[in-house]
Design a protein that fits this description.
The complex is a heterodimer of chains A (about 350) and B (about 290). Chain A has about 350 residues and is α/β, with parallel strands linked by helices. Chain A contains 17 helices and eight strands. The chains are: A alpha/beta (about 350), B alpha/beta (about 290).
């Protein structure tokens, strides 16, 4: 079924809230498509080695690595290093070596490229775009970052573009306003207050950062626009990953709404860890008869009833999600007895994702 | 556990979906039973914690509000803070300044844990924070240290340093990490413990392994369950659910053992709750379990 969603697609973006099995699903989709003859690369920016572990690799780096998966096509995997991607972009856009070095060695830049919410997400999109341009793969599968809010990464290109927007830069680098002069003139009260609040040091760094970064703003903005265009392209597909828990379902419904609002191509939902429906009827007396042990029968019955409660909840929550999504395709992957964390586990998921 | 309750601030960390909010709520109830004036805090516009334990004091940290309070404190003037806070320049600066949102958020949390909160309001003995899931909450924990080094001089730097040393001080701040008994969450918990040692030079106080399946059946009982043949679909499903629960419990216990071997912090467990959605009663039960194991 996933194979239908991804027919003629070149980019598959797996999104969803934390703890729903996004990385595992991304890996299983990539493995499944590779098994069906495609040359696939799966990308993550989560440094926690989830992807590497599930593919049986000790670790992943900023370069693609071939996964020994014995498939008809090819499966490659990489962990994006947002910091390095950002550095590469600066190197690419810098008009000269001096500007490049000034930016790369600026402390504001170093912190920004390392830690700022949004910049990591943006860099994931950027790398996705770059790999797509190079055209070496039939399909790219992106495991989106585990952001606080499952949607943050969608805004990342826009946010970064706004951040480096020339109007912002002018505040810091307008005529005659370089360095400390920024603090005294022009923006008046706000700036002098700011100086008191932050100490001069921070502002000097910010000002220096903006003045050297200014030359690259246009290049970055154009790039961000192209990344946005790729996400909205009909060759891309967003797959929403969820669990049947109420909070995850709520987030998935909201996410779907946002995708449509943003005009992004939504392919379908994968619901993980679904408790399968339990047959009707009360097996209490049967169990007692079969097992010949009242206490044991009671414990089995209790396990069964717990399972049934969760199955009922899952039915209800997924029905609600279906209702809110309209007629959109949904694939259910049952709650498997074993923890899925390796290639064998991914292959077990295949039957449900592609069955 | 007693020592955990004697801190001023406890950060409950962990990846998304592991039950951090539930554990923070349960710990809040334990603290309240011990007579601590307790406040539970959430960040990033969450209100789930307050809904779980409506009887405890709670705060949901709004980063925008925290930014205004922080400015006011730094400038010692409401008027100036108002001028600056509403200026476009400040909006740009806070977008640009790395980790400022994390800093003001953890700053707000730190303030709640002070005996005389500068934001006013009641004083608490203990503040329990449901930390953000991103990167296990490490980014927020290390924001003050990052800031102290960016703004070397000036009030921001000094303030960041105070928060940073408070977070590093095991007498004042506790770190409780929540995990699930599965392969990847266990790996990540082990890595998180190392990262906390590396970045903050401190230890994790305790690890709570949440939602552990009960091991209900003895081996000979399982053999009996496997041997019998059910005639009705419901009985067949019941026997199958007993077997699969046993398989899960066994896998989980082996993950738990692996975590215990690798972790330096004590590892506690909480049982799985088989309720469709968690309610106040469930949190109460979990808090009793937590108290016993602390």
């Amino acid at each position: 079924m996933i194979a239908d969603w991804l027919e003629r697609k070149e980019v598959c973006i797996c999104a969803g809230s934390g703890g729903v099995g996004k990385t595992t699903t991304s890996a299983a989709i990539a493995l499944g498509m590779a098994a069906r003859g495609k040359k696939v690369a799966v990308l993550t920016i989560d440094p926690a080695k989830r992807l590497a572990n599930s593919l049986g690799l000790p670790e992943l780096g900023n370069e693609e690595r071939l996964v020994k998966a014995d498939v008809e096509g090819e499966l490659w995997a990489m962990m994006l290093d947002p910091k390095r991607t950002f550095d590469e972009l600066v190197e690419w856009h810098a008009p000269d070596e001096r500007t490049r070095d000034a930016v790369l060695s600026n402390r504001i830049y170093q912190e920004l490229s390392n830690a700022v919410a949004g910049s990591q997400e943006y860099m994931a999109m950027e790398k996705l775009h770059e790999l797509h341009q190079e055209g070496r793969y039939d399909l790219l599968v992106l495991d989106t970052p585990p952001t606080r809010n499952a949607l943050d990464f969608l805004d990342a290109p826009k946010k970064l573009a706004a951040f480096i927007d020339s109007r912002t830069l002018q505040l810091f680098t307008g005529p005659g306003m370089l360095g400390l002069k920024v603090l005294g003139r022009g923006s008046g009260v706000a700036l002098s207050v700011l100086k008191r609040a932050t100490g001069i040091d921070l502002l000097e760094d910010l000002s220096a950062f903006f003045s050297s970064f200014g030359d690259m703003a246009d290049g970055f903005r154009e790039r961000a626009e192209r990344v946005n265009a790729l996400l909205a392209d009909s060759r891309s597909a967003f797959v929403l990953v969820t669990s049947p828990r109420a909070d995850a379902v709520e987030e998935a419904a909201w996410f779907h709404h946002r995708l449509l609002d943003a005009g992004l191509p939504f392919a379908g939902v994968v619901a993980n860890r679904v408790h399968p429906p339990i047959p009707k009827g009360n097996p209490a007396s049967d169990l007692e008869q079969l097992l010949g042990d009242e206490a044991l029968a009671r414990r089995v019955l209790r396990t069964f009833e717990e399972e049934r409660r969760l199955a009922t909840r899952d039915r209800k929550n997924l029905a609600e999600l279906r209702r809110r999504l309209g007629r959109k395709p949904m694939i259910e992957v049952p709650h498997l007895d074993d923890d899925v964390h390796d290639l064998a586990g991914l292959r077990r998921m295949d039957e449900y994702l592609f069955g | 556990m007693a020592s955990l309750l004697d801190k001023r601030l406890v950060l409950v960390t962990g990846k998304g979906g592991v039950g951090k909010t539930t554990v923070a709520a349960a710990l809040g109830l334990v603290a309240a039973r011990h007579g601590k004036r307790t406040v539970v805090c959430e960040v990033a516009e969450q209100t789930r914690l307050a809904q779980l334990v409506p009887d405890l004091s709670s705060v949901s940290v709004d980063p925008e509000q925290a930014k205004r309070e922080w400015l006011q404190y730094q400038l010692k003037s409401r008027t100036l803070a108002g001028v600056l806070g509403s200026s476009t320049l400040f909006q740009y600066l806070t977008a640009a300044a790395p980790g400022l949102t994390d800093l003001v958020t953890i700053g707000k949390v730190w303030d709640l844990a002070q005996l005389e909160p500068r934001a006013g309001g009641p004083a608490f003995d203990l503040a329990i924070v449901d930390a953000p899931a991103t990167g296990h909450g490490l980014a927020m924990l290390s924001a003050p240290s990052t800031y102290a080094s960016i703004a070397r001089m000036g009030p921001v730097g000094r303030h960041a340093e105070r928060i940073d040393s408070f977070l590093r001080d095991p007498g004042q701040t506790g770190v409780l990490t929540v995990a699930l008994p599965e392969e990847m969450p266990v790996n990540e918990t082990i890595e998180f413990e190392r990262a906390v040692a590396r970045e903050l030079g401190r230890a994790v106080d305790a690890i709570v392994v949440n939602a552990l399946h009960p091991a209900r059946f003895k081996r000979e009982e399982l053999e009996r369950i496997q041997a019998v043949e059910a005639r009705t679909p419901a009985a067949r499903a019941a026997l199958a659910s007993a077997l699969s629960e046993h398989r899960r419990a066994r896998a989980e216990h082996s993950q738990l053992r692996r975590l215990r071997r690798a972790a330096s912090a004590p590892v506690l467990t909480l049982p799985r709750v088989f309720e469709p959605e968690l309610g106040r009663d469930d949190v109460e039960r979990l808090s009793a379990e937590l108290e016993r194991r602390l």
